[in-house]
C-alpha cells in the first residue's frame, strides 16, 4: 500500500477508503480465483432493521461480485435463540461455507454472545468470538481480526506506515467489534494507546494529545474541532443517519467527528467513503483467508 505524507496545507488530506477498499478487493478477487473451491460466505440477518439490511445486502453483493459462493439467511425478527443457533450449526457443518457472519445488532430477545460463541472460530470472519479475540490479544497469527479495526489500520498505514512508534493514539469506544481490537492493533504497531469511553475524565483534553484519533462511539459529530490536535490523523468509525430537510431522502450520513470543524487535522476519513467500505473489503479478505487455510 502506498504511503502518503502528512498534509502540510491547511486542509486535511482525505483518506479515500473507497479507493483503498477497491485495491484490497482486487487482491481478494485474484486470491479467490486461484482457489480450487470458491470461498463461501454466509451472512445471517435477523429482523428488519433498515441499516442492517443495507449492510447485509452490500456484503452479499460484494461476495458475489468477487466470485464467492454467497449465501444470505434473512430470518424474521421473532426468530428464537434455538432457531438461530440451528442455522449457525448448519453453516458450521457446511463444507462450502468458509465464513459465517451474523449481522449485529440482533433483536433484544436474542443473546448475541451465545450466538457468536456458537460460530466455528475458523469460520468467524467477523473475528468476534472469544477464541479470535484471545488469539489477537496474544498475537497469534491465526487470529481472525474484526473487519472495521483491520480496515482502519490499513487506512492509518497509508498515512504513517506500519510502525507507529512514538505516536499517541486515542480510541474513543471500547466495543468488542471496534474499540478493543482497534486498541490492540494500535499497540501491536507500537503506538502508545489510550482507550476512552463515556466515563473518561476530560475527553477533549485527552483527544488533544492524540496523533491518531479513532472515534467509534456512534454519537453523531460528538468529536468537536477543538478536540483535534493540529496535524492529527482522524479515523471516523461512526455512521449515523441524521435528519436533513435539504436532502431528498430527508436524512444524511454523518460520523462521530464534526467533519467541517476538523480543518486542522493532518488526515481524516470522510463519512461516507472512509472506514465503511474498508469494513466490507476486510470481510472479503478474512473470508478468502479462511478458505485458503481450509485448502492447505
Ligand atoms: N456482524 C457485524 N455487524 C456489524 C458490523 C460488523 O462488522 N459485523 N459493523 C457495523 C455495520 N457495518 C457492517 O456490518 C457496516 C457499516 C457501514 C458500512 C459502509 O460501507 N458504509 C458506507 C455508507 C453506506 C450507507 O449509505 O449506508 C460508508 O461509510 O461509506 C459497511 C458496513 C455494525 N454491525
TrEMBL record:
Residues in Tetrahydrofolate dehydrogenase/cyclohydrolase catalytic domain copies: 15-126
Highest taxon of the lineage: Bacteria
InterPro entries hit by this protein: Aminoacid_DH-like_N_sf (IPR046346), NAD(P)-bd_dom_sf (IPR036291), THF_DH/CycHdrlase (IPR000672), THF_DH/CycHdrlase_cat_dom (IPR020630), THF_DH/CycHdrlase_CS (IPR020867), THF_DH/CycHdrlase_NAD-bd_dom (IPR020631)
Record PROSITE patterns: THF_DHG_CYH_1 (PS00766), THF_DHG_CYH_2 (PS00767)
Domain Tetrahydrofolate dehydrogenase/cyclohydrolase NAD(P)-binding: 146-294
MF terms in GO: methenyltetrahydrofolate cyclohydrolase activity; methylenetetrahydrofolate dehydrogenase (NADP+) activity
Keywords for this protein: Amino-acid biosynthesis, Histidine biosynthesis, Hydrolase, Methionine biosynthesis, Multifunctional enzyme, NADP, One-carbon metabolism, Oxidoreductase, Purine biosynthesis
Family that this chain belongs to: Belongs to the tetrahydrofolate dehydrogenase/cyclohydrolase family.
Name by which UniProt lists this protein: Bifunctional protein FolD
Gene: folD
Amino acid at each position: 500500500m502506498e504511503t502518503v505524507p502528512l498534509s502540510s496545507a491547511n486542509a486535511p488530506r482525505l483518506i479515500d477508503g473507497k479507493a483503498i477498499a477497491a485495491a484490497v478487493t482486487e487482491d481478494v478477487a485474484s486470491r479467490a480465483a486461484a482457489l480450487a473451491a470458491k470461498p463461501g460466505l454466509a451472512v445471517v440477518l435477523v429482523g428488519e432493521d433498515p441499516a442492517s439490511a443495507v449492510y447485509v445486502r452490500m456484503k452479499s453483493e460484494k461476495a458475489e461480485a468477487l466470485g464467492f459462493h454467497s449465501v444470505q439467511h434473512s430470518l424474521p425478527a421473532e426468530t428464537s435463540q434455538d432457531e438461530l443457533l440451528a442455522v449457525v450449526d448448519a453453516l458450521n457443518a457446511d463444507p462450502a461455507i468458509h465464513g459465517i457472519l451474523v449481522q449485529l445488532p440482533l433483536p433484544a430477545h436474542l443473546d448475541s454472545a451465545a450466538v457468536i460463541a456458537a460460530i466455528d472460530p475458523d469460520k468467524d470472519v467477523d473475528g468476534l468470538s472469544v477464541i479470535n479475540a484471545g488469539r489477537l490479544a496474544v498475537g497469534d497469527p491465526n487470529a481472525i481480526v474484526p473487519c472495521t479495526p483491520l480496515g482502519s489500520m490499513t487506512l492509518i498505514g497509508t498515512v504513517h506506515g506500519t510502525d507507529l512508534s512514538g505516536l499517541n493514539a486515542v480510541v474513543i469506544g471500547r466495543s468488542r467489534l471496534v474499540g478493543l481490537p482497534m486498541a490492540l492493533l494500535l499497540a501491536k504497531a507500537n503506538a502508545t494507546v489510550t482507550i476512552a469511553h463515556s466515563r473518561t475524565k476530560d475527553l477533549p483534553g485527552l483527544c488533544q494529545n492524540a496523533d491518531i484519533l479513532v472515534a467509534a462511539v456512534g454519537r453523531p459529530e460528538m468529536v468537536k474541532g477543538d478536540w483535534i490536535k493540529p496535524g492529527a490523523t482522524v479515523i471516523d468509525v461512526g455512521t449515523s443517519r441524521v435528519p436533513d430537510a435539504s436532502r431528498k431522502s430527508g436524512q444524511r450520513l454523518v460520523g462521530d467527528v464534526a467533519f467541517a470543524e476538523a480543518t486542522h487535522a493532518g488526515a481524516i476519513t470522510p463519512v461516507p467513503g472512509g472506514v465503511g467500505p474498508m469494513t466490507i473489503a476486510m470481510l472479503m479478505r478474512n473470508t478468502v483467508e479462511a478458505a485458503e487455510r481450509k485448502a492447505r
